[in-house]
Design a protein that fits this description.
Helix content of chain A: over 70%
Strand content of chain B: 5-15%
Radius of gyration of chain B: 24 Å
Order of helices and strands of chain A: HHHHHHHHHHHEHEH
Number of strands of chain A: 2
Oligomer: heterodimer
Number of strands of chain B: 6
Distance between the termini of chain B: 59 Å
Structural class of chain B: mainly alpha
Shape of chain A: globular
Distance between the termini of chain A: 50 Å
Largest sheet of chain B: 2 strands, antiparallel
Largest sheet of chain A: 2 strands, antiparallel
Structural class of chain A: mainly alpha
Largest interface: A-B, 80 and 80 residues
Order of helices and strands of chain B: HHHHHEEHHHHEEHHHHEEH
Chain lengths: ~350, ~475
């Protein structure tokens, strides 16, 4: 098999892993970011337990992305992870605190204990989401990647107006996604209360999304190049609008399963817009975009390694999907508290 | 200026090494216990599924809760290590990405997804799925935990005894690529080291059972549970400690063959010598390059080669710049052996008292058994310290030096800052962990004669459940 096909195939694996990560961990991060807006201890426990069996498996997709980059695009892995050092350290702290908050929150009855962990859960979810947005924004904007494939960037210069905007968009996107998940998982009065948050999350996302789309295409024309070359890609934004409207409509109609599905589709299409804009670049160099950028063609591992990796994915991914199916099928329906709950 | 940059590069290297050592050591408090506990749960829940004895259900649920605390800490601290390869060791990552990356990716795909997915069912699915399905989930979680050990030990073994690769490019573009996949996977030390590590995890799980049961026997709580667990655990401990002896012997022989410098450092053999001695107790005199203490002459030669005469290669065969720091390797190796001896003593005494039916009256022994949980931890840690510090100064044995693997763009301040962050966060996490584990163990498995009502999960979620077990 020619090298380009292998590279493209592995790139597709990475893109699919990222999509799975954002649609799955996206909802549990979103539930986290809404935690402080839900009042009452039992109510908060229900929200926390709605993601209880899932969040840990969802985070594994992050490991899959990291491992996938390490094996298939070692240069991307090495330059991004060392270049965004401080941001990723904060990200790590967020992951650690969040895991502990989820696990420890309900293990003690003290009011202060629970309120503290609720705040930690909320704040760490926001930090992770915002950090992801910043990272994505940086990849659109380009980073100072030099000829020896190292990114020399100081921590504060990551925060430009554009990346901060992307950070906020990510926060509202996941909050909206988490909101849909909670509507699906709760019932009765709590569900009615969560429904009241829905116009807020949707509205805020819509505003930031509109601003960021205009901003991206006016400031970074290369993000739109593919749409000019191949007008077929205009299907993506058109589909996105259709899916988004269906999502809002089904929510209003109370079809929460369907609206959660449309919410997953929304995120998928959003990410595909990003992929279509940056393809075939993986890390865009702001020093010289054409010369120094890491593309999927110039930064991959050898053909042998890609073949091995694809074999692993070929055997592994169906298993992973099967596990996921069993897990989500087991815990379908409304969340109720019982003896083993958090 | 040149001098300054050299110095700061050294500092960055040292700090990055300290950071990795610190984070990986902290991490290693948790996964071995999840592996050990998972296998134990297969046994306990298996008895429940077969006999429907509610006591075993309570036991399984109790140990599952303990498992979940260890698991979540293992996941949280494990992310740090996946990131660390790219954060601090990006030059190493570029160099080994082709070879090493596929092992980490396989670990994620084959191990973590299995573990992470079925853990949900294992923790929350008691009332949602049939007992058999729950049991299958438990089995899959323990398989997942074990698989992760397989892949990560495979990756580490390749760093110890690299085979099956070839080097392409030169200078900064130099990298190791796959020449023969099966030689990479089944590199010479992999199988033996894997069994050594897994037995270590298994023994750790067993000693947790011993420790907790001894505590309940002392406090006269949950007696039926504690008596049964104690007896099973003591027998399992004896068997696995004996197996570990054989596994250790094989690992040492392999080290002597493939990593003679490390082996020489483990026993502080400075000069190649016949009738090489095995040190019982001693200290390393680095100034005179001698080991001082009590040693049995010829025993090391016998253990390595099967006869008392044959020479054991000393450190003098390689230039000093290729030596690991001998005292560190020597002491960790011997501490591991002493810890094994301590565990053996606990297991033998315990079995003796069980046989004499006087176990519950031996309060001094029971206190010793409570504290004995430290021994397998010491052995596991000391064993890894031996393996990793013995590999120095190489990051990939005889292929790449540690100082060549460091990230180029990362500054001393960044590494120092993140190290401080990890120390603070881990101190906090460590305290929380001990606090919660203690609460769980104090609480115990609960009364096993009051089975849960069958309608537990059809309850109104807003209703306060009477006699709710705080979980």
């Amino acid at each position: 098999m020619p090298l380009e096909i292998l590279q493209l195939a592995w790139y597709a694996v990475i893109v699919i892993s990222i999509i799975f990560y954002v649609i799955l961990d996206g909802f549990d991060l979103g539930v986290g970011s809404l935690q402080l807006f839900i009042k009452g201890d039992t109510e908060r426990r229900i929200c926390l337990n709605s993601i209880g069996p899932f969040w840990d498996g969802n985070e594994v997709w992050l490991i899959a992305i990291g491992g996938g980059l390490f094996v298939g695009f070692p240069d991307v892995y090495a330059s991004v992870f060392s270049g965004f050092y401080v941001l990723l350290m904060i990200y790590l702290a967020g992951i650690m605190f969040r895991a502990c908050a989820i696990e420890f929150r309900s293990k003690h009855t003290s009011n202060l204990w629970r309120k503290t962990w609720d705040t930690v859960f909320w704040f760490s979810s926001l930090t992770i989401t915002f950090g992801s947005g910043i990272l994505l924004g940086s990849f659109v904007e380009g980073v100072p990647l030099n000829a020896s494939r190292e990114i020399y960037i100081s921590f504060w210069s990551i925060f430009t107006r554009y990346t901060i905007g992307m950070g906020f968009m990510a926060v509202f996107l996941f909050a909206m996604h988490g909101n849909h998940f909670l509507l699906l998982k709760t019932e009765g009065e709590l569900q009615a209360r969560i429904y009241k948050l829905f116009p807020w999350t949707t509205g805020l996302f819509l505003v930031t999304f509109t601003i960021m789309t205009i901003w991206t295409w006016s400031l970074f024309p290369y993000m739109g190049e593919l749409f000019i070359e191949m007008p077929l890609f205009w299907l993506l934004p058109v589909l996105l609008v259709g899916v988004f409207i269906s999502k809002v409509w089904t929510s209003i109609k109370g079809r929460y399963g369907l609206s959660f599905f449309f919410s997953m589709l929304t995120i998928t299409l959003l990410f595909l817009l990003f992929v279509a804009g940056t393809f075939p670049n993986m890390v865009i160099s702001s020093i010289d975009r054409d010369l120094y950028s890491l593309t999927l063609y110039n930064s991959s591992a050898t053909a042998t390694t890609l073949k091995v990796a694809l074999m692993i994915a070929f055997i592994g991914v169906p298993l992973v999907l099967l596990y996921g199916y069993i897990l989500y099928a087991t815990f379908r329906g409304k969340t109720r508290l019982h003896d083993h709950s958090y | 200026m040149a001098l300054y940059s050299y110095k700061s590069a050294m500092d960055t290297l040292l700090l990055a090494r300290i950071q990795f050592a610190f984070t990986v050591t902290f991490h290693y408090f948790f996964p071995p216990m999840t592996i050990g506990l998972a296998w134990m749960l297969i046994y306990i829940e298996g008895v429940y599924v077969r006999t429907k004895d509610p006591m075993y259900k309570k036991m399984a649920q109790f140990w599952t809760r303990i498992f979940s605390i260890f698991f979540v800490m293992g996941v949280a601290t494990g992310f740090v290590l996946l990131f660390a390869f790219g954060n601090n060791w990006s030059t190493f990552s570029k160099f080994v990405g082709d070879v090493f990356g596929s092992l980490l990716a396989a670990e994620g795909i084959f191990a973590f997804f299995m573990e992470g997915g079925f853990l949900g069912i294992m923790l929350f699915g008691w009332d949602r799925v049939t007992p058999v399905m729950h049991y299958v989930s438990t089995i899959l979680v323990s398989f997942g935990a074990t698989f992760s050990a397989i892949w990560i030990v495979m990756a580490n073994s390749w760093m110890q005894t690299p085979t099956g690769y070839k080097i392409i490019g030169d200078g900064p573009n130099k990298r190791a690529v796959i020449a023969n996949l099966w030689d990479i996977y089944f590199n010479p030390s992999f199988i033996d080291r894997l069994f050594h590590v897994l037995l270590g995890c298994w023994i750790l799980g067993i000693f947790l059972m011993i420790s907790v049961s001894a505590y309940y026997l002392l406090k006269k709580r949950h007696l039926a549970f504690a008596r049964r667990t104690m007896k099973i655990a003591l027998i399992a401990a004896m068997a696995s400690l004996l197996l570990q002896l054989f596994s250790g012997d094989r690992s040492a022989k392999l080290t002597a063959k493939y990593q003679p410098t490390k082996f020489a450092a483990m026993e502080a053999i400075f000069e190649t010598q016949e009738y090489a001695p095995f040190t019982i107790i001693g200290f390393v005199d680095m100034a005179n390059e001698k080991m001082r203490g009590i040693a049995i002459p010829g025993l090391l030669s016998f253990l390595t080669h099967g006869n008392f005469k044959e020479a054991v290669q000393g450190l003098n065969e390689v230039p000093k710049e290729d030596w690991p720091y001998v005292p560190a390797v020597f002491y960790s190796y011997h501490i591991m052996i002493y810890a094994w001896g301590g565990m053996m003593a606990i297991a033998m005494l315990g079995l003796f008292f069980c046989w004499r039916k006087t176990l519950e009256r031996q309060r001094w022994y029971l206190w010793g058994a409570v504290l004995s949980i430290a021994l397998p931890y010491i052995a596991n840690m000391a064993g890894w310290f031996t393996a990793e510090m013995g590999r120095q100064p190489w990051i990939v044995y005889n292929v790449m030096r540690v100082n060549e693997g460091l990230s180029k763009v990362v500054s001393r301040e960044q590494v120092l800052g993140s190290l401080i962050m990890f120390i603070c966060v881990y101190t906090l996490l460590g305290c929380l962990f001990v606090f919660l584990l203690n609460r769980k163990i104090q609480h115990g498995p609960g009364e096993y004669n009051t089975a849960l009502p069958d309608d537990a999960h059809y309850r109104d979620p807003y209703e306060e459940i009477p006699n709710r077990v705080e979980s």
